[in-house]
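Posted in: Protein Modeling Q&A

I'm a second-year student putting together a small comparison for a lab meeting, and my supervisor asked me to include a predicted structure for MerR family transcriptional regulator. I've never done this before, so apologies if this is the wrong subforum. The sequence is pasted below exactly as I got it from our records. If anyone can share the structure token output, I'd also love a short note on what stands out.
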Amino acid sequence: MSASFQGFGDGKEPGALRTIGEVVAALGIKAHVLRYWEDQFPQLKPLTRAGGRRYYRAEDIELLVEIDRLLHREGYTIRGARQAMKGWRPGMGQVAVEPREQAHEPQESAVSAPVRLESEEPEDQIVEALKILRSHLEAIRDRLGGALAQA
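Accepted answer (user: helix_wrangler)
Welcome! Here is the predicted structure, written out as tokens:
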């Protein structure tokens, strides 16, 4: 597993199947986002049982951690992350990302990571940038909510 993920701490074996609720709680990613990523990343195929219940294996969780890193910390778009993840297999560790070019102005925070827009159309770029911004804001909201709940 990735060094950035510390585990579930629920007493289960590290290789145990996890429900979507357990994964959501451990990774801080919304359930609807996980389901969306299943559509966007062909490698992500959790087991589904009767009634559509999802069960995530350790390799699925490792993949989710890597997708989250690319999208929320490295600033990749879905398309860019999907391209970066081509050929990725469990146990490979992190996908090597392109080194960031030095900006003329210093970044104000870790959230203002570079955005890789794949489209040439201005409208598509705006929509893509807004999706990334929304994702960053949701991640910040979730982290703040978690911090407030612990306080």
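A couple of things worth pointing out for your meeting: DSSP finds five helices and three strands in the chain. The radius of gyration is 16 Å.
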